[in-house]
Amino acid sequence: MHVIAVDAMGGDNAPQAIVEGVNQALAEFKDIEIQLYGDEAKIKNYLTANERVSIVHTDEKINSDDEPVKAIRKKKKASMVLGAQAVKEKAADAVISAGNTGALLAAGLFVVGRIKGVERPGLMSTMPSFTGQPFDMLDLGANAENTANHLHQYAILGSFYAKNVRGIATPRVGLLNNGTEKTKGDSLRKEAFELLSKEASINFIGNVEAREIMSGAADVVVADGFTGNAVLKAIEGTGLGTMKTLKSAIMNGGLKAKLGAFLLKDRLKGMKETMDYSSAGGAVLFGLKAPVVKCHGSSDAKAVYYTIKQVRKMLDTKVVEQLVDAFDPKEEVN
Amino acid sequence: MHVIAVDAMGGDNAPQAIVEGVNQALAEFKDIEIQLYGDEAKIKNYLTANERVSIVHTDEKINSDDEPVKAIRKKKKASMVLGAQAVKEKAADAVISAGNTGALLAAGLFVVGRIKGVERPGLMSTMPSFTGQPFDMLDLGANAENTANHLHQYAILGSFYAKNVRGIATPRVGLLNNGTEKTKGDSLRKEAFELLSKEASINFIGNVEAREIMSGAADVVVADGFTGNAVLKAIEGTGLGTMKTLKSAIMNGGLKAKLGAFLLKDRLKGMKETMDYSSAGGAVLFGLKAPVVKCHGSSDAKAVYYTIKQVRKMLDTKVVEQLVDAFDPKEEVN
Hints:
InterPro entries (chains A, B): FA_synthesis (IPR003664), Phospholipid_synth_PlsX-like (IPR012281)
Pathway (chains A, B): Lipid metabolism; phospholipid metabolism
Keywords (chains A, B): Cytoplasm, Lipid biosynthesis, Lipid metabolism, Phospholipid biosynthesis, Phospholipid metabolism, Transferase
Structural class of chain A: alpha/beta
Organism (chains A, B): Streptococcus thermophilus (strain ATCC BAA-491 / LMD-9)
Oligomer: homodimer
Function (chains A, B): Catalyzes the reversible formation of acyl-phosphate (acyl-PO(4)) from acyl-[acyl-carrier-protein] (acyl-ACP). This enzyme utilizes acyl-ACP as fatty acyl donor, but not acyl-CoA.
Order of helices and strands of chain A: EHEHEHHEHEEHEHEEHHEEHH
C-alpha cells in the first residue's frame, strides 16, 4: 500500500478539485491510501470515497503570497507542512500540493530532506512537444544559480525518471545550450558538457537548443534553474499568447470566422490535447528522500488525479530508492 | 547622403533577394547610396536601380558553416569583410549582411570596432508581441557570458534605440528575471537590478518575466546573452511549432477542416501579420562605432528593404553618435 499525503487546501480550486481528484484516484487505484490535510468540514463536502482515506484536520494554510521559507517555519500546522511532516515521520510515502510553489520547495528541502549526495534538488516537469513525445526538463527554477556538478546530477536524476516513470529504455539526455557544437556556451555549460560526456550511466547526446526541445530533440533536457525557468516561461507565454490571439481573432472575425472555427473545432481540440500535458502529472522536486510533487495552481480534479497516478508510479518503480543507491558515496567509483 | 554597404552574397536567397531589396530601397529613399559587395555578374542579373548604387566585385564569400573568427581573418576579400572594411575606412556609414551571424559579429567587433566605453556590444532585435506593440531585447547571444555592468550598458543602449529609432519617448526598461520582486534572481540579476535602479538616464520598471515579455511588459528587455538567446529560441520554437501543428491539423482534417480554414483565412493572415516583425528590420550588433545589422538568413527582398529602412533611420537619428557621447568617459558623472 502506498500512502500519499495530499494538501487539500492548496491551489485556486481547493479543496473541491483536490478532493474530487482524490475520489477518482481512490476508485481506480486499489493500492493507494490517501491522507487529506486541511479543513475537515470543507473536505467532507466533496469526499465521496470512504475507504483508504483519512482526514487530518487543520485550520492553518499557506497562502499563495506568503514568503515561502518564513511560511513553513511559522505555520507549523499548515496543511502543506503537516503533509511534508508526515513524510518525514514515515507516516506517508509522498506529498502532493497545488499551493505556493516556493513554500512546497522549502518544505521539501527542510522537512522531507535531500537524498545524501544530491547537492541541489531540481524542479522537473514532463513537458509537451509538437511531436507528441514529451520530455523531462530540470531545473525549472528551484535554484537561481547552479554549478556544473548540479547539472551533472540533474542529468542522472532526469534519466532515472524518464527510464522508470516514463518507461524510456535509454533516455536521450541533452544539455540546454546556445548552440549544438560541443564548444558552445559559457564556462558553466563547457564544464557541464565535460562531466556529462564522461558519465557512463546516462545516454548523453550533446547540446540541444531551446528552439528544438519541443520538437523531440531529447528525452531529458538539463538546464540551470535560471535558464530553465526563463525557457519554461517563454514557452508558456508564447503558447498561451498564440492561443489567446487565435481565439480573439475568431471572436472578432464575424460570422464567417466563427463558422470557420466551428468547422475546425475538432482539429483545434485535438491539437490542444497533444499540447496538454496534465496527464504527465505535476512538477517533481527531484532529489529528495521521497516524492514531493507540485500540481499546477489552477489544477482541476483531472490534473490532481493524474498527479496521484504519477506519484503512485514513482512509488511503484522505487525511483527514489534507486536514486538513494546511485548517489550513495559508497557506490561511487571515484 | 547615407552610404550603406550591403553584403550581396550572404543568406539563403542571395544575391537575388538582397539585390531586389536594394532596388526597392533605392527607389523609395532618395537620401541613400548603396555599395553592393559580391559577384558583379550575378548582382547585375537582378540590379535594376542605376543611380546611387555601385558594385564592388569579389569572388570570395563567407559560408554559413565557416568558423566565424577564422573566416573573417582568412577571407580578407569576402563580401562581408569588405563591407565592414568600408565602414572602418569611412567609405560607408553602415553595413548589412544576411550571412553567417557569428562572422558578422566578429567583423563588427574586430573590423568596425566598439564604441569607446562600451565593454561588450549586444545583439538586439525588435521582437513582436501579442499586443501589437513590439519590444527590443538584448543581448540575444553575441556573448555567452555577461557581467552586471554589461547588462547596465544594454539597458542604456536599448533605451537609446527605442527612443530614437522606434520613437518611444520614455521607453520602459525591464530586467529579464525569474520573478518580478526586486529580491529575485541570481547574483548577476541582483547586482544588475541595483545598477539599473540607480541609472538616471533610463526608465527602469524593474524585473520582467519571460512569460510576460510578449504581452507588453516592457519596451526594452535586458538579458545576458546566454539567457536572451535561450528565450529567443524558445519563443521561436514554440511559435513556429504551434503554427506548423495548426497547419498539419488542418491539412489532415479532411474537407470540413479545410473549409473551416478557408473561412478563417483572413483572420489567420491578420494574426500572422501582427506576429511578423520583419518590418522592424534586422538584428543590430549594438555598441559598435557604426550600424552593423544582420538580416535573417532566410530574408526575402521585403526583409532586406526593411533592414535598409531601419539602418537609414539609425543614421538619420544619429543614434550611434549619441551613444558615443553618452559613453564618452569625459561625460561620466562619476
